[in-house]
Design brief:
Distance between the termini of chain B: 47 Å
Helix content of chain B: 25-40%
Strand content of chain A: under 5%
Radius of gyration of chain B: 36 Å
Shape of chain B: elongated
Shape of chain A: flat
Structural class of chain B: alpha+beta
Number of helices of chain A: 9
Helix content of chain A: over 70%
Distance between the termini of chain A: 28 Å
Strand content of chain B: 25-35%
Number of domains of chain A: 2
Structural class of chain A: mainly alpha
Number of strands of chain A: 0
Oligomer: heterodimer
Largest sheet of chain B: 7 strands, antiparallel
Order of helices and strands of chain A: HHHHHHHHH
Largest interface: A-B, 62 and 60 residues
Chain lengths: 291, 480
């Protein structure tokens, strides 16, 4: 027997308020990071430790906390995990991207892609608040499964790791093209950028493989077949294949470097395509956008 | 590697059209609609197998080539790896300064070699003393993982193929109270794999005792949203009888087959009597849902009615609401005030000609209309328990009761568990191959007494520096 969950739309509005405030913080952080980049490209010689950047990170961390509260409140309002439709998936992903990025900074210096990360997260949040927002809804029976927790949370994690890697790919490609030389000289070497991107992609790829398997197990329970080339399954497969291609490129002489970076970036574009275009315009069984 | 890369990218691109055009396997109706909408273009696409992308010759060619190249690459590598695991560590390179990590150690050069071997051994390196140096290596699991991963993918492919061949899946619509007996004739539709054998159908029967839908009644914005579908069924296999629930996401394991709930609707019980007063039709009629409030459409055919054959197209509204134009619609999916409206036709229903007809459709082109919204008489309207005469002395019709039906899917795929096992093996070995470090470490005492240490990683190795620092510390302590 499934008990009826009491939804709390007013609380969801409070959550929306938190998400919107987080956007404001992240926007300020983005401005500071961009300003910092402009400054860096002007200065010759040694780099002074920038107060701007430090303030930017404090604000970004604060924005992440506010966003986290917004995500949790949304879950409480809906009485379940906050990733059962497109809006919820987007805010949860945005939160986890920030969390992964900020945690990774404890291990490696990744300050130089702060502009990309905060910009990407801001765009994601803007799209989810303005385009994807839906009131909290009763969850359809097909989604009522613990696989919703396992399958989706790992998909979100994988997306977070791929996003950080994409930022590193972009940094690599800009640096390799010899543009913005003054600025790029302050970025890590091409070799380090490539290695870092590889590590994030590797973790993302393992998680993506897990998501694919977990999704197949759930599909067997819910749709009586583990694989049926549903549009979402097709794109999950395409993304997996593209990242597998990237890993092979990294191990193939003449294909690592720029070509691999492009490939990683194309694979990441497929991830975004899968979440936006496939969700909204392709016909399939994964109809959970709620729009 | 280059081939694998090329074929992987080709496979990714080749998979795209299957998400753009409807596929016969996933969306047969979409294909039919495409043909109706653009018949010329559809024929061209069909010629290119674009409605069957994943079984098409070109898609199959790509993945078969990919697997051929995979096997061609992995088999020789397995032999190389097997030999490498049993071989001695490599010869210490002449110029250790060119390795990723290079350091000069402080300590007694006399002890260095012996202690270096001891330290490296304790850290599970395979070591060999080569004159004035120690060569060591560890992390063979990286390559083992890589090879097992690729072999697992072959396993997945075989399990998918063989499993698909032996599999079957069938559908059956059951009205509450009806019983399904597991044999080929009982299925409404049945699609077996090419290796299916009828003896795989184990004997059991399944009765749909009850079907209920739970609606959200607490949340104002979601009133009427279904939150659970529950089919209560009794299965009998041999001597054993048991009662279970089937819900979405929670299939039932019946003998030799899993039983899934895939759809539901209403089945009003209707009796039609002909002009002579004889029963021409009696029983539940499957009504197909047309919208989220379960406005449903059903067809009744009474070819044995006398003097005229009777055809009825009926609409069912679980909670009827009248629109401004006098037509009805359902305003709530649960049957709070159920209503049937019927358009009545007479004439040759075409059932005697031997051509199979869709039971859910009635071709009214050659029939005479007796009652409809356009006349000549108003549609027949019935609530539960009511009975009304048909116009023109055709007979009468009664709405005796209301049942629900469930669409049940029966699926069997013995490959599934193997696909899962190989997938999990692939996942585990993939993780191993990507994250397990493979390192070579050398320690050499030069003639001038300088102790050199160097290390090199195969592939990406985040902790190489950390690991060698630890070796260095332990070694320097030993030889201090």
């Amino acid at each position: 027997m499934t008990p009826t969950i009491v939804l709390n739309e007013p609380l969801s509005q409070v959550s929306l308020l938190f998400v919107s405030s987080a956007m404001a913080f992240i926007a300020v952080a983005l401005l500071l990071f961009s300003f910092q980049l402009v400054q860096l490209s002007k200065i010759e010689g040694a780099v002074p430790v920038s107060k701007l950047e430090k303030i930017g990170f404090v604000i970004l961390i604060f924005g992440t906390i506010v966003l986290g509260i917004g995500v949790v409140l949304r879950g409480v309002a809906a009485g379940r995990v906050p990733w059962a439709n497109m809006y919820e998936f987007a805010i949860s992903t945005a939160f986890l991207i920030l969390l992964i990025y900020l945690s990774a900074m404890k291990i490696k210096d990744l300050r130089f892609i702060a502009t990309f990360i905060s910009g990407f997260v801001l765009v994601t949040l803007f799209a989810s608040v303005s385009l994807f927002y839906v009131e909290v809804q009763t969850m359809m029976p097909a989604l009522q499964s613990y696989w919703l927790v396992i399958h989706v949370v790992v998909a979100i994690l994988a997306t977070g790791f791929f996003t950080v890697a994409a930022g590193l790919h972009i940094a690599y490609l800009v640096k390799a093209s010899n543009r913005a030389k003054n600025l790029m000289d302050r970025f890590p070497s091409l070799e380090i950028l490539e290695r870092l991107a590889y590590r994030f992609n590797v973790v993302g790829f393992v998680q993506w493989s897990f998501t694919l398997i977990a999704g197949a197990i759930w599909a067997e329970r819910a749709w009586h077949r583990y694989w049926g080339w549903d549009t979402k399954e097709v794109w999950t497969f395409i993304i997996w294949t593209l990242y597998a291609g990237y890993l092979h490129a990294m191990a193939t002489r003449g294909w690592n470097g720029k070509r691999a970076a492009w490939l990683g970036l194309i694979a990441f574009l497929a991830v975004i395509f899968n979440f936006t275009i496939v969700n909204l315009f392709f016909k399939g069984l994964h109809v959970y956008s709620g729009l | 590697m280059r081939n694998a890369l090329f074929l992987l990218l080709l496979l990714a691109v080749a998979a795209v059209p299957g998400s753009v055009y409807p596929q016969r396997s996933a969306d047969p109706n979409g294909v039919k609609e495409f043909f109706d909408r653009e018949p010329e273009f559809a024929r061209v696409l069909d010629g290119l197998q674009l409605f069957d992308v994943y079984t098409s010759a070109w898609f199959s060619a790509i993945y078969i080539l990919l697997f051929v190249s995979l096997v061609g690459c992995v088999v020789p590598r397995t032999k190389v790896h097997f030999d490498a695991m049993r071989a001695k560590p490599v010869k210490t390179p002449t110029n250790l300064k060119r390795m990723t990590i290079h350091a000069e150690l402080a300590g007694d050069p006399e002890l260095a070699i012996q202690k270096a071997q001891k330290v490296l051994k304790s850290m599970r390196y395979k070591t060999q003393v080569q004159g004035n140096s120690v060569s060591s290596e560890k992390g063979y699991l990286k390559e083992t993982g890589n090879l097992v991963f690729h072999f697992s993918l072959v396993g997945v492919l075989i399990a998918v193929g063989v499993g698909g061949g032996l599999s079957f899946n069938g559908q059956r619509v059951l009205v509450e109270g009806e019983t399904f007996v597991n044999n080929l004739a009982s299925y409404d539709s049945f699609s077996p794999g090419p290796l299916f054998d009828e003896s795989k159908l184990l004997p059991f029967s399944l009765t749909l005792d009850d079907f209920s839908v739970l609606y959200d009644l607490n949340n104002r914005a979601n009133i009427g949203q279904p939150i659970d579908f529950i089919a209560t069924v009794t299965t009998t296999a041999g001597e054993e009888t048991k009662t279970d629930e089937i819900r979405v996401n929670y299939p039932l394991a019946a003998p030799g087959v899993n039983v899934f709930l895939t759809g539901n609707g209403f089945a009003p019980v209707i009796t039609v009597r002909d002009g002579n007063g004889d029963v021409a039709y009696s029983g539940p009629v499957i009504f197909l849902p047309q919208d989220s409030n379960m406005t449903s459409l059903g067809v009744i055919k009474a070819p044995d009615a006398n003097p005229d054959q009777i055809g009825i197209i009926a609409f069912f509204y679980p909670t009827a609401g009248e629109l401004d134009n006098g037509a009805y619609t359902s305003i709530y999916p649960d049957p709070l005030s159920p209503l049937l409206t019927m358009n009545v036709y007479k004439g040759d229903l075409g059932l005697d000609s031997g051509i199979p007809r869709n039971v859910y459709a009635l071709d009214t082109a050659s029939l005479e209309t007796l009652a409809s919204r356009e006349g000549p008489n108003d549609p027949i309207m019935l609530t539960v328990g009511e009975s009304k005469d048909l116009p023109g002395g055709l007979g009468s019709v009664s709405f005796d009761g209301l049942l629900r039906f469930a669409s049940i899917d029966f699926a069997y795929n013995p490959g599934g568990v193997w696909v899962l096992l190989f997938s999990l093996l692939a996942l585990g070995s993939l993780t191993l191959s990507l994250l397990w470090p493979r390192r070579r470490v050398w320690v050499r005492v030069n003639q001038d007494g300088v102790i050199e240490m160097a290390a090199l990683a195969k592939g990406d190795d985040q902790r190489l520096e950390q690991a060698t620092t630890e070796i260095r510390k332990r070694l320097e302590k030993e030889i201090a």
